[in-house]
Amino acid sequence: MKKRYLAVLIAVFMAFSPVNSFAADESTTETTEETTAGEEQNDLTEQFSTFITSQYDEDLETLTFDDAVEKALRNNSSLNNLKASMDLAETQLEIQYLEAYSSDGFSGLISFLNSQSSYQNNELSVVAQEESVKHSMKESFINIIELQRNIALSELSLKNDELNLALSKIKLSNGKISQSEYDNLNLAYNTAKEQLETQKDTLELEYVSLNILMGTDINERYNFVMEAVYEPFELDIPVESYINGKVASSNSVRQAEKSYETTKQTSKLTPLNSSEIGGYQSAQNSLNSAEMSYEDAKDSVYESLYQKYNSIVQEEKDYTAGLDELKLLQDEFERTQVKYLSGNASYYELLTAQYNVAEKENTLLSSVYSHMLLSEELTNTELM
């Protein structure tokens, strides 16, 4: 927006209102969730990859998250169209500005104020859409990494099931289990194989979705680099104060506030005896509607953020408990390993103990990724 427009507009608004409230209130105290100075963020991927890990192929290109985001931002047609339309809108604003101050009455000024408000909201939309693209890319990365690990976990489980089925067949021949018991085990094994194929199909669809986001060949495949970092969410102010601050600076609330303030100004510029279409009564109706939209936006964002905060708190409780459970499972695996080497545990028991560790590690890593996404959704006001 050109500076000369703003100077004139401020003068006009001051004539009709004691305060200029176009700008969003940035004074809300905000407490950060960053680690203390000098503390390093550790990637937990390797820590939770004792028996399974994400797929890696030396023949494939390594795709970092930053590279993927750059490609996605370049390729996003909605974002590019919005930027192009804003270039045209800025030129149109110049014309409306000149018309507004060269005509009698306030109709030209009202038209200009509405267009200016729309332009400013589109500026906010550009930033919000850019952040949305980045967040979608992070979700896509995490979905693929988790699917790769889930497939590896399922393959490990099938290995156990195959051994169990072979042992059960021997038991069946010795009369130690019934035919129906064996059939049930066989059915469970075949069902698990089908589920594994479904996971692989889902992974292929995720690859396609990722390539579409980046505007690349849908058949491209990559090695993915995505750190799994766990930072407990800590506040040194009451949660209500923190969330209220986020609500005030959230993108959707700022847009609703701008629309409300513009509608308030245009209603003051509409005379009581206006006979034009969209006259005084219509202006008052629009003002009431804009005010309700503003209040609804604040309530909606507040409720959403509170839910995310509660989810983060629960995630952290589950994560802490999960670490304790993992330690017990690791100890059990080590004991089973010793027993197996001394001939006091079967290979199947060893594989089962191994699988239990791998499954818990996978759950914990998924919890870290979920915590990362929720934390971003709670702290990044452009996503609200």
Q: Overview of this structure, please?
A:
It is a single chain. The protein is mainly alpha-helical. The protein has one domain (3-18, 36-226, 236-383): Outer membrane efflux proteins (OEP), CATH 1.20.1600. The protein contains 9 helices and 2 strands; from the N terminus they run αβααααβαααα. The chain has helices spanning 3-16, 65-75, 77-100, 107-173, 179-214, 239-249, 251-269, 280-341, 347-379; strands at 61-64, 222-225. A two-stranded parallel ribbon has the order 1-2. α2 (65-75) crosses α4 (107-173) and α7 (251-269) runs antiparallel to α8. It is elongated, with a radius of gyration of 30 Å.
Total beta strand runs: 2
Estimated helix fraction: over 70%
Unreliable residue stretches: 1-39
What is the spatial order of strands in the main beta sheet?
Answer: 1-2
The CATH superfamily is identified as: Outer membrane efflux proteins (OEP)
Distance between the termini: 24 Å
- Percent range for β-strand residues: under 5%
Give Rg in angstroms. 30 Å
Shape: elongated
Q: What tags apply to this protein structure?
A:
384 residues, mainly alpha, Outer membrane efflux proteins (OEP), 9 helices
Summarize, please.
The protein is mainly alpha-helical and 384 residues long. It has helices at 3-16, 65-75, 77-100, 107-173, 179-214, 239-249, 251-269, 280-341, 347-379, and strands at 61-64, 222-225.
Question: Helices and strands in order, then pairings?
Answer:
Layout: H1 3-16, E1 61-64, H2 65-75, H3 77-100, H4 107-173, H5 179-214, E2 222-225, H6 239-249, H7 251-269, H8 280-341, H9 347-379
Parallel strand pairs: 1-2
Helix pairs in contact: 2-4, 3-4, 4-5, 4-7, 4-9, 6-8, 7-8, 8-9
